[in-house]
Design goal:
This protein is of the alpha+beta class. The protein is built from 9 helices and 16 strands. The structure holds adenosine-5'-diphosphate and magnesium ion.
């Protein structure tokens, strides 16, 4: 057996972290590679969820002791490869690589968690379709933005993920209520944190892609169909979908590819793109980020398990390339990694199933 792979995964107890750890374990087992997994997690309850050899409670990414803890763990466990899973932690790590003596496979830190206004400007400059967007600098501007862009509009802060504090608003008055309530309850600090953009009622799509120094290794696209507990959320969006189905559409892959290139001229590592369509089915990019979507490693795991082929296990391919165990040319590349029409269905306490286009169900978890 080749030498043990020693990996540190941060944010390992979050849903994305648990999915990532599971995919690595599975990939290592199927490839007969020994793996030792150390994980950190801020949440004291979720730390016990992933299948780790060592689980360590960490401070938040913004705490001055966060990086020293990672340095200590890298040295103590002779970590070869560091994977910071949450984008907040990945950004800090990517911006402090020289202090961390472990291999990583991360984008430039500027490509991780960019704010929505930055994304909008970068993509617009490169002619990637984006919804018309205006930043809200003062309350007096609201009426004018509605006059210019029409109604309804999509209101949200520039920062934050999972559609946090996003809302469909029908008028300047509704937008004002929402902003004022969030300011008065301390969820945001200033009106300048908000943007308003064209409301897109169509399909909710995601594009995931793995890159190596500017070259695409694996891309895949899917449509999000339902979110967990959608009926108790104002927008019906709760961050990560309970049902999504793979799609293979050239137009969407092209937009996904172009969005990553527009954000980062030499993408390296894993990128996530969110695309929403208008009423006429025209797609627009709402977000592109050098991070892992929560379910990206789970899709890879599900297909690797259902089709008994580790090629699909994109988190494991990332590890093999990132550690130098394989060169990108030794990984079969694909711009449509997953076959079309497969639904991944997941729900709290109900397991995970993969349903093929003919209705055949494979139990994944
Ligand atoms: N302009 C819009 N109109 C309607 N829905 C939107 C719009 N922008 C985003 N959304 C929805 O909100 C979700 C989250 O937005 P996204 O741009 O991915 O930012 P983040 O995930 O960082 O909150 C998207 O997946 C999409 O479902
Ligand atoms: Mg998103």
């Amino acid at each position: 057996m080749a030498q043990l792979l020693r990996v540190l995964v941060t944010g390992a107890g979050g849903i994305g972290g648990v999915n990532f750890v599971r995919a690595l374990r599975f990939g290592a087992e199927k490839s007969k590679i020994g793996i030792f997994l150390v994980g950190t997690e801020f949440n004291e309850y979720y730390i016990d969820l992933p299948d780790l050899d060592e689980a360590i409670k960490s401070p938040r990414h913004s705490d001055p002791s966060f990086l020293p803890l990672l340095r200590k763990l890298i040295s103590k466990y002779k970590v070869d490869f560091l994977h910071p899973n949450p984008s907040s932690e990945a950004k800090v790590v990517a911006n402090n690589l020289p202090q961390l003596k472990a291999k990583t496979y991360l984008p430039n830190w500027r490509s991780i968690s960019p704010d929505k206004e930055t994304i909008w400007k970068k993509l617009k400059t490169k002619q990637v379709p984006v919804p018309e967007t205006r930043s809200v600098n003062s309350i007096d501007e609201l009426e004018g933005i509605f006059k210019e862009l029409g109604s309804p509009l999509w209101l949200r802060p520039k920062e934050g993920a999972g559609a946090r504090l996003a809302l469909k608003v029908n008028s300047a008055e509704e937008a004002l209520h929402w902003i004022k309530l969030n300011l008065s309850q301390g969820r945001t600090k200033a009106i300048g944190e908000y943007i308003l953009q064209s409301y897109l009622p169509g399909r909710d799509l995601a594009y995931d892609s793995l890159w190596y120094h500017g070259k695409l290794i694996a891309g895949s696209a899917r449509q999000r169909l339902e979110y967990p507990l959608k009926h108790i959320s104002l927008t019906g969006l709760t961050g990560t979908p309970s049902v999504a189905r793979t799609i293979q559409e050239e137009k969407i892959s092209k937009i996904g590819f172009a969005s990553v290139k527009a954000l980062d001229s030499e993408p390296h590592g894993f990128f996530s793109t969110d695309i929403k369509e208008d009423e006429g089915g025209e797609p627009y990019v709402t977000e592109v980020d050098g991070k892992w979507h929560t379910t990206a490693p789970l899709w890879g795991y599900a297909f690797a398990k259902a089709k008994k082929d580790n090629f699909y296990n994109v988190a494991f391919s990332y590890l093999l390339i990132g550690t130098g165990r394989k060169t990108p040319s030794e990984i079969r590349s694909s711009d449509n990694l997953y076959p079309e029409g497969y639904a991944l269905i997941r729900q709290m306490d109900s397991g995970v199933i993969l349903k093929d286009p003919k209705g055949k169900v494979t139990r994944i978890l």
